[in-house]
């Protein structure tokens, strides 16, 4: 540069242009270098992600999923495992593979169609043999059959253990096993016992199966074959979607998106209330985010990821920790207070399901910036205020206040729902202005 400038000295004006031209070139070159570097690191990072996906964790492919199901069927034919889904899966071809949804740490989630109904096939582990075998079966003479009462006893123990309920208490029989026992009348086969045992080792299965008839806010288990069980296919929520749920997937009839959102919100409220009151013990959801909920066609909200759902006794166990401050007493979305005298966390949860739902689901959903034109409607403003109040109320501590907050949200949402339907009767161009902003994601 220095010698160049000297050489250009006698002709200042031209030199200036040349200099600028040179400068631009230098500038461009560094841009180019920068772009190349950026591109290089992008390729490198993508490569890393790819390697991670394919080698380190097992990335889900159709080929692998089909092989896994084939192995299940081989074992079914060998008589190692069984279940009410096996015949349709392995013999009559009534289960049609669709795609795989998810593999992580061995967990398999596969979408399929069973006799025309969309289902999700799930198993925590890929292979039947990876599950702990039922010790009883090894000690028993193979010719001798186990008495049904033994089976029921072990199954009940396993279930109570898995749900964290009091083991010493009255071992009441979960309806499912009692019913099967009565239908069967006699003994279970080895394949049946081994299959049952592999399913009982999957907390999610146990949880869903036992609470099956007690709540409509949990996914229905439709059948099983060996260690795989089928649950109803639902439309899962997405964090990236403003509406959380893909309303197109469930929309039936002339409902507006806004109407559907209010119905879904009401179902969330219903779920929060029922999980607090419908079971013998309060049910705590400690991982509340859009992806962990789904909706049915009738807009009922369903909790699909129950790995972080605990009944009160287990919740108390989990929360009771040594601590030096309140931050030590946070277990995901379930928090309690640190008792500074004993340095132990309180075993009573300080917040409630509803409070976290308000914070993580309702607030972003009904937030004023995203509501756009609708924000001005009087009820919407009230709703935002009620949601904020719900976020600020420590629900686990004051029952009375908790109920008040709940009732206020319920009244507002019901009001908005009626407002919505009555303006529909008035036809287009009403105060609702649905036609003016026809299709932003924000328009509900
Ligand atoms: N009943 C269902 N209907 C439709 N999709 C489902 C259903 N159950 C699970 N999925 C999809 O499969 C994915 C994984 O399922 P699931 O949540 O059971 O796995 P997980 O290991 O518990 O997930 P996480 O890592 O979030 O804890 C979910 O994100 C969801 O999109
Ligand atoms: C499952 O079984 C197959 C075939 O027997 C084997 O190749 C695979 O490694 C097993 N997977 C696991 C996780 O054990
Ligand atoms: C179990 O329940 C039955 C009826 O509900 C009762 O008669 C029995 O005493 C209970 N047993 C125990 C150990 O609590
Ligand atoms: C908690 O603290 C008690 C005594 O302060 C101690 O005995 C115990 O081991 C601690 N537990 C854990 C899990 O750190």
Automatic annotation (TrEMBL):
Source organism, top-level taxon: Eukaryota
Family to which this protein belongs: Belongs to the DIPK family.
Key words of the record: Disulfide bond, Endoplasmic reticulum, Membrane, Signal-anchor, Transmembrane, Transmembrane helix
Compositional bias per record (Basic and acidic residues), positions renumbered to this chain: 425-437
Occurrences of domain FAM69 N-terminal (ranges): 24-179
Residue ranges crossing the lipid bilayer per the database entry: 32-51
Residue numbers spanned by region Disordered: 421-444
Entry membrane topology: Single-pass type II membrane protein
InterPro entries: FAM69_kinase_dom, FAM69_N, Kinase-like_dom_sf
Compartment annotation: Endoplasmic reticulum membrane
UniProt xrefs under SUPFAM superfamilies: Protein kinase-like (PK-like) (SSF56112)
Location, primary (coarse class): endoplasmic reticulum
GO CC terms of this entry: endoplasmic reticulum membrane
PANTHER family: DIVERGENT PROTEIN KINASE DOMAIN 1C (PTHR21093:SF2), DIVERGENT PROTEIN KINASE DOMAIN 1C-RELATED (PTHR21093)
Protein name per its UniProtKB record: FAM69 N-terminal domain-containing protein
Pfam families: PIP49_C, PIP49_N
Species per Swiss-Prot/TrEMBL record: Oncorhynchus tshawytscha
């Amino acid at each position: 540069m220095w010698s160049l400038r000297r050489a250009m000295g006698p002709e200042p004006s031209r030199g200036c242009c040349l200099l600028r031209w040179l400068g631009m070139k230098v500038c461009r070159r560094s841009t180019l270098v920068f772009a190349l570097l950026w591109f290089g690191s992008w390729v490198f990072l993508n490569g890393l992600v790819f390697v991670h996906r394919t080698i380190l964790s097992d990335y889900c492919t159709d080929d692998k999923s089909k092989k896994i199901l084939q192995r299940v069927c081989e074992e079914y034919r060998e008589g190692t495992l069984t279940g009410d889904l096996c015949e349709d899966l392995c013999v009559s071809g009534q289960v049609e593979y669709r795609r795989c949804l998810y593999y992580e740490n061995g967990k398999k989630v596969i979408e399929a169609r069973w006799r025309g109904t969309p289902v999700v096939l799930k198993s925590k582990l890929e292979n039947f043999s990876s599950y702990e075998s039922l010790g009883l079966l090894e000690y028993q003479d193979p010719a001798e059959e186990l008495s049904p009462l033994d089976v029921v006893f072990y199954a009940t123990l396993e279930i109570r253990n898995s749900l964290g309920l009091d083991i010493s208490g009255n071992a009441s029989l979960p309806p499912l096993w009692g019913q099967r026992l009565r239908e069967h009348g006699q003994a279970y086969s080895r394949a049946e016992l081994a299959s049952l045992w592999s399913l009982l080792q999957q907390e999610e299965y146990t949880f869903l199966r036992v609470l099956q008839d007690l709540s409509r806010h949990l996914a229905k288990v439709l059948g099983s074959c060996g260690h795989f069980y089928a649950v109803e296919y639902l439309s899962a929520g997405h964090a990236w979607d403003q509406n959380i749920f893909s309303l197109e997937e469930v929309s039936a009839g002339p409902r507006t998106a806004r109407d559907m959102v209010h119905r879904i919100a009401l179902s969330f409220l219903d779920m929060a209330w029922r999980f607090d009151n419908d079971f013998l013990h309060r049910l705590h959801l400690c991982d509340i985010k859009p992806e962990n909920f789904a909706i049915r066609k009738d807009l009922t909200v369903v909790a699909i990821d129950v790995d972080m759902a605990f009944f009160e006794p287990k919740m108390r166990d989990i929360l009771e920790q040594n601590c030096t401050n309140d931050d030590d007493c946070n277990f995901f979305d379930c928090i309690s207070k640190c008792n500074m005298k004993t340095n132990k966390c309180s075993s009573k949860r300080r917040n409630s399901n509803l409070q976290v739902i308000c914070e993580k689901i309702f607030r972003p959903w009904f937030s004023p910036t995203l509501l756009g034109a609708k924000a001005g409607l009087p009820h919407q403003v009230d709703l935002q205020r009620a949601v904020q109040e719900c976020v600020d109320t420590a629900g686990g501590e004051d029952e009375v206040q908790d109920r008040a907050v709940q009732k206020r949200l319920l009244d507002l949402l019901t009001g908005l729902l009626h407002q919505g339907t009555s303006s529909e009767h008035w036809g287009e161009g009403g105060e609702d202005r649905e036609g003016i902003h026809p299709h932003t994601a924000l328009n509900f």
